[in-house]
Write a structure and sequence with these properties.
alpha+beta; GTP Cyclohydrolase I, Chain A, domain 1; GTP Cyclohydrolase I, domain 2; 2 domains; five-stranded mixed sheet; two-stranded antiparallel sheet; 6 helices; 7 strands
Length: about 190
């Protein structure tokens, strides 16, 4: 997949404006195609990025206890309707052999994966798999809670409803106590 084609986006947006019965030459809409192309370049900037690359840099630290970064805000675009969904992500991992990563890299992994046409389930599993593969921790758990505008502003129209997805890898798959501890910490 190549770079974003701004001219093609601008033309497509002009066509959409016409297709909904508006005048793309009206003052308020005149620069809309350019604004949308700029926005798409930003919100889809994760398309050609691999979140695993964020975990190339690791640190050796004599630490093998739970690491949890919670309430990481994210915004993404539903690939089914091309409208936003947004929420919070929570990432927990249990380092193995003192292999830890920078905390900001966990947040960047969510952001990188979210910045492409996406499904919440895929963000959850992709981030968990990247951490699991690159850090080889005892366990990983990613929990995402999000509101989907495709459910709140159209279709069933249920504003405020949240979708929660989880991805669990390694020892957290079988250790119910650890899973409960993580979920309790997330809620607190």
């Amino acid at each position: 997949m190549g770079e974003i084609n701004r001219e093609q986006i601008e033309e497509a947006i002009r066509l959409i404006i016409e297709a909904v019965g508006e005048d793309p030459n009206r003052e308020g809409l005149l620069d809309t195609p350019k604004r949308v192309a700029n926005m798409y370049e930003e919100i889809f900037s994760g398309i050609n990025q691999d979140p695993k690359e964020l975990f190339e840099l690791v640190f050796s630290e004599n630490y093998e206890e739970l690491v949890l970064v919670k309430d990481i805000p994210f915004y993404s675009i539903c690939e089914h309707h091309l409208i936003p969904f947004f929420g919070k992500a929570h990432i927990a991992y249990l380092p193995r052999n003192g292999k830890v990563t920078g905390l900001s890299r966990l947040a960047r992994a969510i952001e990188t994966v979210a910045k492409r046409p996406q499904l919440q389930e895929r963000i959850t599993s992709t981030v968990a798999d990247a951490i699991n593969e690159k850090l080889d921790p005892h366990g990983v758990m990613v929990v995402i809670e999000a509101e989907h505008m495709c459910m709140t502003m159209r279709g069933v129209k249920k504003p405020g409803s949240k979708t929660i997805t989880t991805a669990v890898r390694g020892s957290f798959e079988t250790d119910q106590c650890a899973r409960s501890e993580i979920l309790t910490l997330i809620k607190s």
